[in-house]
Amino acid sequence: MGKKTILVVGFCSFFLASCLCFATNVLSQNRSSVMLFLVPELTREDVREAYDSQRFPFLKQAALGELNIRSALSLKDIHNVLTISAGTRAAGSEWGRHAYGIHGRNGEGIALYRQYTGEIPPTLRNGSVLFPYMAVLRRSNEQKNTGAVPGLVGETLERHGISRAVIGNSDTNSQISRLAALITMNQKGITPEGWVGEETLIRHAFFPGERKTDYSFMYYHMARWKARGVGLIVAELGDLRRLGKYESVLDTERYALLRKQIVHEMIGFVGKLVAEAEPRQRLLLVSASLPDSEIVAKKRMASVLLWEAGRYGGVITSGTTRQPGIAANIDIAPSVLSWLGIQLPPEMKGLPLRVDRSRSVSHDSFWRTAELVDAIYATRPFVLYPYIVFSIIVILVVPASLFLRGKAEEIKRKATPALQCCLLFVLLMPCLLLFLSALPYLPSPLLTVLLLGGVGSCLAYILRKTSFGLCFLCVGLAGWLPVLADGLLGGELIRRSYLGYDPVIGARYYGIGNEYMGVMLGSVVLSLAMWGELRGKQRRGFLIATMLVLFAILILYMAWPAGGSKAGGILVFLAALVYGVFAFSGCSMRIWRVVLVVTIGLAAACLVFWLNYQFAAQEQSHIGRAVGELLGGNWAEIGRIIERKVTMNWRLILTSIWSKLFIAGLTVSLLLLYWKREKVKQLASPSSFFIAGVKTIAFGSFVALFTNDSGIIAAALAMLYALVPILYVLLRNENTVD
């Protein structure tokens, strides 16, 4: 009887255990999970070589993309990984590399954790990973006022009962580096389980430093965690970083061969896990940093690859960038939480990654776009600097020529046609830079400068043959019509223009930047003024009505999330409209009129801001999100936004070449008003609309200067559309009088 009881109990136990295992497997298959691979110093060239090698067909099943890795401080891995973990730009520390498993040598992790925190958490288990230096990261981000919360991903997952684990490191013989734990830890610096020490490495006598990742060890534990239903597994694959420490002492061919071997080993390891992925599992591979050689070569976008079970191909994008193939490091943490079905905490400013699998995008187009982004970023100074320097020289030389007397007057007379062409060329360049983006390939900087110079000179020569009013009406229309048309059609030309925004810098990814906002401000007012000059004073009412309609269109374009999406632009164009109505109508600025018009303008601004906020979260621009912060009473974040904008503008004023252009233009304007006051006044009688336009542009320029994060750029470009026509007509009048 006893044997039968034992047999029955044993059979029942076996049956229950089998049912439990089966239920666990079913639940783990139906539960969402994420594997995140952090690969320091992985480049796009590494990924492209493996992609083209035909050894890894699963790479063609991935969604491809590049990440902007801007942080609160620099592009270093310590800042980038903390930014990834916080979902907002953060400031890391070298102390962030030091995470320890409690099973490490001599209990080092527990001892250090108690030394620096004064406690031993009661929830520790065998296999937990500890980060003792949370106070350093918190203090660093408080001092920089970043708003980043270290440990936010791990803390959020813990509150929702989702487990997490970390494995691997980027240790070298001289330095510990275990940054993956920054993503999985909670706000106390604890990851429930993981392996981050020497146990994840193997000895390799023929590899520099003699230590490499033990992929068998990592695969065993990651497969075990996946089977148990761990929600987030982060693996740090650090062999490229280890190899990079010895690049300077290795033969170039030997280094390239070892790098290729490492990339293939790493890709093969990831591919093994991709092949075993469950239906609701996502695997994300992210380059955690870039080699110094890539930074020097102006290649500053990191690779990112995403595998989703049952979905193949496509390119990565996000609501942050709205550009196919481009996302931001602040989007990684929101993506992880979104994939696991968790609402994003308000401290995260990024948006979840999306995959664009439409017919208009492909892997081939992604590779071309990525190379183009790098090329534009690397060559931008070689194209823009000559243009800005040329503009400064022209607006200094032309007024100087107005003071020439005696024998020098004959030289001035002969040089006048060339100087007038140079003035026109300065205003035609923004339009030419926009259309340059339509070329099927990007010419070299030298060829670009020669091409722009040739086309611009020809157009300037043709326009110089026309009357003053018609000439600058055409120049004005060329400044804003193509920009508005391109913006309404998706902004493809602006996005790839040398004068547009840059995804590598990451200050803006969509809409209209400060450069073309300044161009639009100056050119639209100039075209209205010249149209008024050509039509005469009897059409003043129609001109004011046209201005109201046109500015309403531009303001709505600036407010539209899929259009200009420029909060500063809304304020600038509203301010210019308010001033322009008085200037063009000739009405005196009585207090009640000013108050009435300003009140209407502010009400209109509030309305367009509120309408922007009504869009869904994924469709909102940064304007709508800022309005949400304001309505939610998040004054700390509003303060950070204002601080960032003021700091950036002040830094540009102190260091940017655009400030030199603005100062040169302002100085020349003041000198003309002082020494050529009578001749400038003479422009007002037959050209009242012209002078009204000049005043409106000047007013709008100063509003742009103080209401935008890069306002000095907008102000410098807008000011040209007021100063250049004055110099042109003064030069013409001087030559006529002589």
In summary, what is this structure?
The protein is 59% helix and 9% strand.
Model description:
The protein is α/β, with parallel strands linked by helices. It folds into two domains: 330 residues, 3-Layer(aba) Sandwich (Alkaline Phosphatase, subunit A), CATH 3.40.720; 318 residues, no CATH class. Helix content is 59%, strand content 9%. The protein contains 27 helices and 15 strands. An eight-stranded mixed sheet has the order 7-5-10-1-11-12-2-14, with helices on both faces. The chain has a three-stranded antiparallel sheet with strand order 3-4-6, with helices on one face. A two-stranded antiparallel ribbon has the order 8-9. About 1% of the residues have low confidence.
Structural class: alpha/beta
Number of strands: 15
Major sheet attributes: 8 strands, mixed
Distance between the termini: 130 Å
Pick out its properties.
elongated; 2 domains; alpha/beta; 738 residues; three-stranded antiparallel sheet; Alkaline Phosphatase, subunit A; 15 strands
SSE inventory with pairings:
Blueprint: H1 2-30, E1 33-39, H2 44-52, E2 63-68, H3 77-86, E3 100-101, H4 108-117, E4 129-130, H5 134-144, H6 152-159, E5 164-169, H7 181-184, E6 190-191, E7 193-195, E8 201-203, E9 211-213, H8 215-227, E10 232-237, H9 239-244, H10 252-275, E11 281-287, H11 292-296, E12 301-308, E13 315-318, E14 326-328, H12 332-339, E15 353-356, H13 363-401, H14 408-436, H15 445-464, H16 468-488, H17 492-495, H18 514-535, H19 540-559, H20 567-585, H21 591-613, H22 622-631, H23 635-655, H24 657-675, H25 677-682, H26 688-707, H27 711-737
Parallel strand pairs: 1-10, 1-11, 2-14, 5-7, 5-10
Antiparallel strand pairs: 2-12, 3-4, 4-6, 8-9, 11-12, 13-15
Helix pairs in contact: 2-10, 13-14, 13-15, 13-24, 13-27, 14-15, 14-16, 14-27, 16-18, 18-20, 18-26, 18-27, 19-20, 20-21, 20-26, 21-22, 23-24, 24-27, 26-27
